[in-house]
Each structure stands twice: as C-alpha cells, then as structure tokens.
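May I ask for a sample protein chain and its fold as tokens?
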Amino acid sequence: MANASATTSLPTAGFFRRLGAYIYDALMAIAIGMVATMLGLAAVAIGTSIGLIKLPEGVEHSTYLVGQIWFQGLIWGSIIMFYIWFWHNHGQTIGMRAWRLRVQNKDGSNISYTQALIRLFTSALGVGNLMVIVTKDNTAFQDIWGRCQVVTLPKK
C-alpha cells in the first residue's frame, strides 16, 4: 500500500483506466454473488433436511431461495462489503490494483467507511464514471459526493 505523502500529488485516473478496473471488479462481484448463492442453497438444503424449512410440493430449492429477502440481502450485502472493505482498508479493489488505481482522500489517506458507502451508492453502478469524460480534472460523480479522488499509481 502506498503511503499518504507519496500519493498526494499523483494524477487523477482517466475514464479508460476506470473502465478497465470496473470490468475486472464486475467479474469479481459476479463471483462473490455465485459464492453467496451456493451458501444460500446450502442453507436451504440443510434447512429442509432437518425440517426447519418446508417447501411446497414441486418447489425446488432455487425457486424458494429467489423469493427470500434474506437471500437478496446475502448477495447484495456480500458485494457491498467487498467494495467497502477494500476501499477503506487498501484504497483499491482487485480491479483497481490491476489498473494501478487508488481511491483516497486528498491528503493520500484511505477513505472512511462512510465515504466508501457514499461513493458506492452514488456511483449508479459505475455510470457516475461517465462524468470523467467531460471534467477537466477527471472527477467522477461518486468522487465529488464521497469527497475523495481516484489516482493513477506509478509503475514499480
């Protein structure tokens, strides 16, 4: 992880780097959703085998699972926690690391959990990055609302 003083004067990230990181992270989010689905299916299978859950005749585990609010919470919560944890603790997701990007405060420090939440929910599933195309300082919508910046790290 880069130290704060070394990352305060780095250039802000452009659109295509952000897009590359977004694609990598979208693949990671899909994988996280798949793991959460396996855990949900396992929970329903165990619940039905011990008699805790009674499925109507002809209803499969997956059909039952899709209608459960806790299952939606499990999937979305897992994906949300992925972004928030990586942004707060490392300043980078896996995709951002591959594209040498870092989200940080203006002083180079890691963003807070609150900033990460604001950044995630104002990004509009990545559409907020389109703003980078029209701004001179490569600022995205979520960067403004989260009071942070995305910088390009130098090659090692």
In short: The longest helix spans residues 15-49.
